[in-house]
């Protein structure tokens, strides 16, 4: 784990994500700005399955829509 933190994988950035941006991936995905651990931290909300994906957490609540 230390090696990964000291030498993180590199990737080219071809698009920037911003709070509220939506895409059609996975039946509708919305970017949610969730600052905390790092500057620019985001979570991804998958509308169809009602799942929120965060970098350090995964949680799904089965609530009936009203």
TrEMBL record:
Q: Enumerate the InterPro entries for this protein.
A: Metallo-B-lactamas, RibonucZ/Hydroxyglut_hydro
State the organism of origin.
Rossellomorea pakistanensis
Q: Which Pfam families match?
A: Lactamase_B
Q: Where is the Metallo-beta-lactamase domain?
A: 9-64
- Its recorded name reads Glyoxylase-like metal-dependent hydrolase (Beta-lactamase superfamily II)
What does the organism's lineage look like at the top?
A: Bacteria, Bacillati, Bacillota, Bacilli, Bacillales
- SUPFAM superfamilies registered for this protein in UniProt: Metallo-hydrolase/oxidoreductase (SSF56281)
Which top-rank group of organisms is this from? Bacteria
